[in-house]
Amino acid sequence: MSRPAQDLSATSAEAPTSPLQVEPPPVSINAANTALGILAAISFCHLLNDMMQSLLPALYPMLKSGYGLTFTQIGLLTFTFQFTASILQPLVGALADKTPRPYSLAVGMGFTLIGLVLLAFADSYTLLLVAAALVGTGSSVFHPESSRVARMASGGKHGFAQSIFQVGGNLGSSAGPLLAAFIVLPRGQSSVAWFSLTALLGMAVLIKVGHWYKAHGISRLARAPQRAAGTGRRHVAGALTVLLALVFSKYVYLASISSYYTFYLIDHFHVSVRSSQLHLFVFLASAAAGGMIGGPLGDRLGSKYIIWVSILGVLPFTLLLPHANLFWTSVLSVPIGLILASAFPAIVVYAQDLLPGRTGMVAGLFFGLAFGMGSIGAAVLGRLADHFGINLVYQICAFLPLIGLLTGFLPNLHREPLRAVSVR
Q: Which of 103, 107, 109 is nearest to 52 (CA)?
């Protein structure tokens, strides 16, 4: 058990004088020091957070018919939610690196609560946009800080910890369509207000996590050994550029699924709204499973190799999807979700190892980029769908995983096997 931190200024030990400073050889903390209870708590709250956020896109068919919205307006709803989150997340993460705020997680959940209540009773498109912005603000606080807590609790098993954290969010996202299909659609838009109770539960759990963060987490992160970057400024900039391109590939494709998959199924195969939600659940549940795979494999094999497989490996399935019948569309959505979702934990860990001492900023940057790329992609794809049809969207997006070829330009950060050491 780690001793309580004596002073919040101890976080200064985490940040090197330069983000490019070469660190000691890679080591890991003994697995006994992994705070599994904290990882479980933060993953559970990630489930609640993303479950509530996934209600918005799951409501799109109802909102489109009820408010007479175009695909462009649907895309702008997604843009408002995700762009709000993407702008603020890197700032929140960088601020946490300098001055930790253990209870900011609960505050972030509070923004989501207010957004949900407004979404339940909004009677105009403008109020829907405001509700989406509030939910995005809650996400901007929650994701970078909770990813930072996951690294605090990792005990050196960084990929494993990020996957545990990420799988909660993926499960929550996959639950959104089910909740919409069996609770919100039959009971109407106002039933969203009941989910504010889950936000209150999340706030209670996050206050407890905040106590651990303040007493133990800060000192654990400050003492944790860093992996070696060992690359020059130009190589770091090049690696970050490649990672940005990979995030673009992954999240624009995911935006095509989360925002428009139900419309594609309804338009192309003439299924019911409920049936389309169930098919969306199949994809999102597969993504939840995939998020659990990438991190632990990255700990063993190196994050770069997992990124290779998870981006480029999905290409054959995405190319087949626009030409498949309903049965095979559902079948193909499983490996697409499974393989594609395994990339993000590996990308986050790779970037944190590339820039040691910038844990919060890196998490905020990449979660923010994930939301930002998704928001821009949703808006652009919505415009394309209005002008050229929803089928063309999937024919274009099928080629996005080709960007995964850029992974070959990433430097290898994990050439040496890990050896366990104990932390006192």
A: 109
Q: CA neighbours within 13 Å on the CB side: how many for 117?
A: 10
Three-state SS at 24: coil
Q: Are 315 and 402 in contact (CB under 8 A)?
A: yes
Stretch (H or E) spanning 77: helix 71-98
Q: What is the pLDDT of residue 408?
A: 85
Query: String of b and e for 130-142 (b: at least 16 CB within 10 Å)?
Result: bbbbbbbbbbbbb
Tokens (6 digits) for 133: 């912005």
Rounded-to-integer distance, Cα 387 and Cα 87, Å: 29
For 99, list phi and psi in degrees, rounded to 5.
-135, 90
- What would the mean pLDDT of 58-81 be, rounded to a whole number? 84
Give yes or no for a contact between 286 and 337, defined as CB atoms under 8 angstroms apart: yes
pLDDT tens readout for residues 211-270: 998 888 777 766 655 444 445 677 788 888 899 888 888 888 888 887 788 888 998 899
CA atoms of 151 and 144, how far apart (whole Å) = 11
Query: 376: Cβ–Cβ under 8 A, 6 or more apart, which residues?
Result: 79, 83, 252
Nearest to 360 by CA among 232, 261, 247, 217: 217
Burial 308-331 (b: 16+ CB within 10 A, else e): bbbbbbbbebbeebbeeeeeebbe
Beta-carbon contacts of 300 under 8 Å, excluding residues fewer than 6 positions away, are none
Q: How far apart are CA 57 and CA 65, in angstroms?
A: 14
Residues β-bridged to residue 28: 420
Residue appearing with tokens 């990433």:
410
Buried b (16+ CB within 10 A) or exposed e, 36-58: eebbebbbbbbbbbbbbbbbbbb
Instruction: Report the chain's mean pLDDT, rounded to a whole number.
Output: 79
H-run or E-run covering 138? helix 125-152
CB contact at 8 A, 163 and 295: yes
- Token pair in block for residue 169: 């969010």
Distances (CA, A) of 32 to 155, 159, 421, 422: 7, 16, 11, 9
Q: Provide the angle, in degrees to the nearest 10, between the axes of the packed helices 125-152 and 158-179.
A: 150
Q: d(Cα 93, Cα 143) in Å, to the nearest integer?
A: 9
